[in-house]
TrEMBL record:
Residues 97-152 form the Myb/SANT-like DNA-binding domain. InterPro entries: Myb_DNA-bind_4 (IPR044822). The lineage of its organism: Eukaryota, Viridiplantae, Streptophyta, Embryophyta, Tracheophyta. One of its GO terms (molecular function) is DNA binding. One of its GO terms (cellular component) is nucleus. This is Trihelix transcription factor PTL. It is found in: Nucleus. The keyword Transcription regulation applies.
Length: 153
């Protein structure tokens, strides 16, 4: 019986040492994984920081170029208006008589797309033209419903 107890104790000690060894290996693996993960996160943060810096520099350069471009264009337009002195042309544009071709094309597309609504009863034509004018405004063309209606006829 004592031999059996000794064998069991030896077996238990062996099992405990194996379990402790496996636990230490697991802890080492987890520690290595944490180090790798923190290194990966640090690399990603550096990458994103450099990416963000590049984007900010690009945006700043684009905005500077945009401001220079629009500033020059605005001066050219005002110079042309002063040199020409053509008040009738400016008044025609302000009244809505002058429309760029792209704007007319967009107006026609919107009007055609809303043909069904124009055919419905109970919807006023003025409301539909204002809706078209709002859609034009969303596209960057500042016209009111009356101007749109007058242009399409």
């Amino acid at each position: 019986m004592s031999k059996l107890m000794e064998k069991q104790e030896a077996w238990m000690e062996k099992m405990m040492s194996i379990i402790e060894h496996k636990e230490q290996e697991r802890m080492l693996r987890e520690e290595e994984w944490r180090k790798q993960d923190s290194a990966r996160i640090e690399r990603e943060q550096k990458l994103w920081a450099s990416e963000r810096a590049w984007i900010e520099a690009r945006d700043a350069a684009l905005m500077e170029a945009f401001h220079r471009l629009t500033g020059k264009e605005m001066r050219v337009v005002s110079e042309n208006q002063n040199v020409c002195g053509n008040k009738a042309m400016n008044q025609n544009y302000l009244r809505g008589d002058m429309w760029p071709e792209s704007e007319i094309a967009r107006l026609i597309q919107l009007r055609t797309a809303m043909e069904v609504k124009f055919q419905e009863r109970g919807v006023t034509e003025e409301m539909l033209w204002e809706e078209i004018a709002n859609k034009m405004a969303c596209l960057g063309h500042e016209r009111n419903g009356f101007m749109c209606k007058r242009k399409v006829g």
